[in-house]
Amino acid sequence: MNRVHIKTYGCQMNERDSEAVASMLRARGYRIVPSEEECDILLLNTCSVRDAAEQKAIGKAGYVSARKRRQPDFVLGILGCMAQNRGASLLEQLPDVDLIIGTQKFHQVPGYLDNLRAARSAGLPVGETIVDIAEEAGSQNAIKDHLVPEDSAAPRQVSAFVSIQQGCNMDCAFCIVPKTRGDERSRPMDDIVRECTELAERGVREITLLGQIVTSYGRRDYAHTGGITPFVQLLERVHAIEGIARIRFTSPHPRGFKDDLVQAYARLPKLCGYVHLPMQSGSDRILRAMNRPYTRERYREIVASLRAVRSDMYFSTDVIVGFPGETEEDFVQTRELFADCNYDMAYIFKYSVRSGTPAADMGDQVPDEVKEARNQELLEILRQNSLRRNAALLGTVEEVLVEGPDKTGKLFTGRTAGNRVAIFAADPRLVGELVPLRIERASVSTLYGELVLAGVPA
Q1: What is the crossing angle of helices 12-27 and 109-121, to 10°?
Q2: pLDDT tens digits, residue range 39-91?
């Protein structure tokens, strides 16, 4: 009864949390298995950003609960944001769940599972569901372990997520993250640099720095030095690590893009020319209602300043359509700014009521059919933009980091600095290398090409 499968919903932060939990469990003697059919313990690491995400996880847990009736020793746990948001109230819908563990208690999962296993091995009644959603000082420092493949023949890990900051103090009217993740908390800079150095020594070439508002890193813990914010100081230190070839970060806030961060793209060549810059709305009126502290013109200025230092910069964004009170004119302004910014990728959400947020109590909710129509309009603009940008790469040579075999196992996959997925034929020994790829074909989301390697077989 030590085989664990972790199913992750939601963002890259959740993926990183799941990996850290898996690493801690493996160190405790548990086996991490790739399929839930093989496991004795199923952990669902959940998301609460939208109601649909919560309902998906609840539906999955309800379906799996039937397995517990066939296998009484089977363990089902719910971790993460939905656990934090709903706590013990989840038991009204899911009475068979064994664990409900919040976002600041991931490091307690191995101990709780040990207790459950010991009780069942001794034939003792397990008792009530374990619910732990309490805050814990220093919990941001617990997400530091990375999962090392058990099989020495397993594919090399080329890229890694590194959590640098958790929590959010922004209080956007639509967002439940401050409730599920707590106040801003940053890890010590030396610890982060040490973690990145260890990853580089294991062959990792690309680091993605993670935080709820990653650009707020260390603002209460470290001094600005010569006009350089703590976040940019951290970028400089990671940039200096031998072996690291690329640096990315997510998710930032537009207010974090001061001149020092913009200029970092000009002077730090390892910092990829790709920016995720959440817009949310192109209407100043809606931005104020959302409690987003910038205007459409300030947002446009940030985009222009980044393109001024790197003309080939790639952009992605987050947009919410149908926020309470959004009129047709508000949406037209969003659509215009969305088109002008020429995004390469976007996460476009139809506003979803999240209880406990200010927007949930606002009147003038937008009908679902209007949200859907607006969503489709932006998706079509995105499709055209992305296809046009990819088509412009035909015949050019892009530097690609080779990540490993593609889904078919016959070809290889990698990413450009602009975060475009590329598919190509290659030799396995090139995994982890930066190689030139001539682009021969392109779809909306994927590039296809041939390696340009003088004297080296592809």
Answers
A1: 50
A2: 999 999 999 988 888 999 999 999 998 888 888 889 999 999 999 999 999 99
Least confident stretch, 145-149, 282-286, 409-413 = 145-149
User: Are 282 and 337 contacting, i.e. CB atoms less than 8 angstroms apart?
Assistant: yes
- Collapsed DSSP state (helix, strand, coil) of residue 31: strand
Delimit the domains of the chain by residue range.
3-132, 140-390, 397-451
Rounded-to-integer distance, Cα 404 and Cα 432, Å: 8
Average pLDDT over residues 141-161: 81
Report the length, in residues, of the chain. 458
The token pair at 41 is 């313990």
Question: Tokens 């982060």 map to which residue?
Answer: 192
Task: Express the helix, strand and coil content of the chain in percent, nearest 5 each.
Answer: 40, 20, 40
- According to CATH, the topology of domain 140-390 is pyruvate-formate lyase- activating enzyme (3.80.30)
- Compute how many other C-beta atoms are within 10 angstroms of the C-beta atom of residue 95: 9
Is the confidence at residue 151, as pLDDT, over 70? no
Which residue did the predictor score with more confidence, 305 or 126?
305
Tokens describing residue 419: 């975060």
Does residue 453 surpass a pLDDT of 80?
Answer: no
How far, in Å, CA of 306 to CA of 288, rounded? 24
Closest CA to 432 of 456, 402, 455, 400: 402
Domain 397-451 has CATH 2.40.50.140: yes
Structure tokens at 127: 């008792």
Q: Measure the CA dihedral 18/21/27/30, to 10°.
A: -80
Average pLDDT over residues 397-424: 96
The CATH superfamily assigned to 3-132 is: Methylthiotransferase, N-terminal domain (3.40.50.12160)
**DSSP assignments along 296-327, one per residue:** HHHHHHHHHHHHHH-TT-EEEEEEEES-TT--
| Confidence at residue 122, expressed as pLDDT on a 0 to 100 scale | 67
